[in-house]
Design brief:
This protein is of the alpha/beta class and about 750 residues long. The protein contains 26 helices and 18 strands.
Length: about 750
């Protein structure tokens, strides 16, 4: 069982306190080991058949009650029956007794904290040889060609000097720290290849199959195939001092099976059939990787700081506020608003929009209107802060798009990103098995597939647009994406790959900023972008350690320690150490500039409003020309539409010469005094014909002021000619009008009296 609480140790041997309730881990003769926990017991005692429940109850008794190989006493057996009778209602006491007797006779039990060859304590001081293969981030080592130390036979690469590292290495070091076991590390280096080229095979050190072959060659009696010490798999703690540069373990220590293969070995039926495999120290799955390219900003990118629903809500708020302003400020309460209903609606909407923009068009005159304006201005303050706070980030962001979202886009026609043009790159035996067994049977169309030598080759094919996607183990893909592509500048719009123009090849080992040779050129893929993992992990599996099956092995003792370090969180910390989250592209520009592509939608949006304004202006001009050409029908229809009361207010847009007889018959006789009507018949000066009414009134007022000044000058001139002083304290015209002309009448009476006195004199 791999559930929590499946392992416990004594404090004496392991230097740790004993677990509160350690389960009993037992050994079944000739069949390996069996671990039971209480949750597992509940599951196995729920079997339906009597026979299955009988065997399950026997295991329950053995796991929970039997402390050794001794038989149960009658008293103990009665306690067992009383405790488990509710799950064995169909069994008689005699049937249960016989089942337990038969099972306990063939089982030899050992507790993990006892001195036994199959317990964790037995690993203390033991030495195991570990055969590795290169697969980052699980196993990484320097000098893979093995020039100085082929196959690491001389142990020149160790975790202590940092020349061997990775997730699997750290897991083994944690196992060593918890159990006291010692490890030596080797990797496949075929002797035939090394003798010919003086270096190990480049592709073989990446293959788990070659690593298993090396272990088999030693344990099955054919050790002359690979370079290595003579005492490999023999339990030695140090390199053989007699080993040459690439000697073969032909003589010396007889292999005892104290070796295993470590890396990223997936626990599969085939592996279990040929090797003893430990429980998984890490559970992962496949993940799909494709290339994400930058998406050009949309025309309405400037609106992205607010969600579409917020924009709709603001539009509704503008209309509601306009309606409220129309009710509390319109219909005569605010002189700035017209009485015309359509004009009132348009002005209130415009007023509400300007309030939202923070530049109010009008001032409220009622308390209700002031309250509405305060609320709108408060909303404006908050929305402006939120919008401007994130606008720069949104405009300078670079959204990405991927050609597919999950493996379903390869299989089903109704998938969101399905396309017959998608190309899938396959790189390993495990991925091909999944493709054949789980993808081909359900695919609605034939999938285009290309081969890759390994996952690194397939990921390069995806980056250079030879393939649409590939899939592999999630930790491996994450590490490759970060270290092989992101950190070396093979990503983004600014990055690319180094192209050898002389040999017509891609230099995968040369990073983006090191492509400086004359014959090298920095190229970008047809679709610039960065590799990205998409979708969820699928086809879950676990990673284990493979021991030789033809020799005796203590591999079950490793299970106890693996379970402990998993529950202690050590595995999680190791994974976080080796796999980076969301690495940044090394080729990204240091300073991101705001380009026209980010704000072209804003200019287009503004241009649309300007165009609408120009169209409205042309319509207004057309109406003005039409009124001049056909004043009668135009003004008549206007009066009929908005009423005679609004004709004078809207007449400012008409020309001064628009004195239509029909209009005078409707407006003048009812609302204008007869004297005004007569004055309205006076013709305007020729230079004012065609001007607007407001311009006419201003010009006439100026001319009247000039006439008054000229008349006053003439009066002074006549007074000087008659020799009479001009009265400086003569009342002003306005004062005379305000006094109803009384002052003028009194002055006339005084003048008459003076004339009579002069005549009488």
């Amino acid at each position: 069982s791999t559930r929590r609480g499946a392992v416990g140790w004594e404090g004496d041997a392991m230097g740790r306190e004993k677990a509160d309730n350690p389960p009993l881990v037992r050994h079944i003769s000739g069949r390996g080991r069996l671990a039971l926990t209480r949750p597992a017991i509940v599951r196995i005692t729920s079997f339906a058949s009597k026979a299955a429940r009988a065997v399950a109850l026997c295991l329950v008794v053995a796991a929970l009650v039997v402390p050794s190989a001794a038989k149960l006493s009658e008293a103990d057996f009665s306690k067992v029956l009383a405790k488990f009778r509710h799950v064995a209602k169909d069994l008689s006491e005699e049937q249960l007794r016989q089942a337990i007797t038969q099972v306990t006779d063939i089982i030899q039990w050992d507790s993990p904290d006892s001195v036994s060859s199959n317990s964790a304590d037995s690993l203390v001081g033991q030495s195991y040889d570990v055969i590795l293969y290169y697969i980052p981030p699980f196993v990484k080592f320097e000098d893979r060609d093995g020039l100085a130390d082929p196959g690491n036979a001389l142990q020149s690469r160790t975790p202590a000097n940092g020349k061997i590292s990775g997730i699997a290495i750290d897991v083994l070091m944690a196992l060593a720290a918890e159990s006291g076991v010692n490890f030596r590390f080797f990797f496949p280096c075929r002797k035939e290849i090394y003798d010919a080229d003086m270096k190990c095979g480049g592709d073989e050190i990446n293959s788990h199959e070659v690593a298993l072959e090396m272990m088999d060659s030693v344990t099955l009696g054919d050790p002359a195939v690979f370079c290595g010490p003579q005492n490999i798999c023999g339990g030695a703690a140090a390199p053989d001092p007699m080993v040459g540069v690439c000697a073969s373990p032909t003589d010396g220590t007889t292999p005892t099976g104290k070796c295993f293969v470590a890396g990223a070995l997936k626990i599969s039926p085939e592996l279990l059939e040929n090797y003893y495999v430990t429980m998984s120290y890490m559970e992962k799955g496949f993940v799909l990787v494709t290339k994400a390219s930058q998406l050009s900003p949309g025309l309405f990118a400037f609106g992205d700081p607010l969600a579409p629903g917020v924009w709709v809500l603001l539009f509704v708020e503008v209309l509601v506020a306009a309606g409220c302003l129309m009710l509390v400020e319109g219909y005569g309460d605010n002189e700035a608003l017209p009485l015309n209903p359509w004009g009132l609606i348009s002005d209130c909407i415009y007023w509400s929009v300007t309030l939202l923009l923070g530049v109010a068009d009008k001032q409220p005159t009622t308390d209700g209107g002031r309250t509405i304006v305060i609320g709108m201005l408060f909303l404006t303050m908050l929305m402006r802060a939120v919008y401007t706070g994130s606008l720069n980030t949104v405009l300078m962001s670079t959204p990405t798009v991927t050609p597919l979202l999950s493996k379903s886009d390869f299989l089903y026609k109704n998938a969101p990103s399905y396309s017959k043009k998608h190309v899938l790159c396959m790189s390993s035996k495990s991925t091909w098995e999944y493709y054949d067994n789980f993808m081909v049977p359900v695919a609605e169309n034939e999938i285009q597939v290309i081969n890759g030598t390994d996952i690194n080759d397939c990921m390069w094919k995806v980056y250079t647009d030879e393939a649409t996607a590939t899939f592999f183990d999630a930790p491996v893909v994450a590490w490759r994406t970060a270290n092989t592509f992101q950190q070396k500048g093979h990503c983004g719009t600014e990055g690319g790959y180094c192209w050898d123009s002389e040999n017509k090849t891609v230099l995968r080992g040369v990073s983006w900023n090191q492509c400086t040779e004359d014959k090298w050129k920095l190229r970008s893929p047809d679709t610039p972008g960065s590799l990205m993992m998409v979708g969820e992990t699928f086809a879950s599996f676990g990673y284990g350690l493979a021991f030789p099956k033809n020799l005796g092995s203590d591999y079950m003792a490793f299970n106890q320690i693996i379970q402990f370090i998993k529950e202690a969180g050590i595995i999680d910390n190791i994974e976080d150490k080796h796999i980076a989250d969301n690495p940044e592209c090394a080729a990204s520009a240091a300073a991101v500039q705001l380009t026209i592509a980010n704000i072209n939608g804003l200019f287009i949006f503004t241009g649309v409003f300007v165009f609408i304004g120009v169209v409205i202006a042309f319509v207004e001009r057309f109406i003005g020309v039409f009124v001049k050409l056909c004043p009668c029908s135009c003004c008549t229809s206007l009066a009929a539409a908005i009423g005679a009361a609004e004709v004078e207010a809207d007449h400012d847009s008409l020309s001064c010469e628009s004195t239509d007889d029909d209009l005078k018959r409707e407006v003048t006789p009812q609302e204008v005094e007869p004297e005004v009507a007569e004055e309205a018949e006076i013709e305007l000066p020729e230079d004012l014909v065609g001007a607007k009414t407001s311009e006419c009134l201003i010009e006439l007022e100026v001319r009247l002021e000039r006439i008054e000044e000229q008349l006053e000058t003439l009066v002074h001139s006549f007074a000087d000619a008659l020799g009479e002083p001009y009265p400086e304290d003569a009342p002003a015209v306005d004062d005379v009008e305000e006094n109803g002309g009384e002052g003028a009448e009194e002055e006339e009476e005084d003048d008459e009296d003076e004339d009579e006195e002069k005549k009488g004199g």
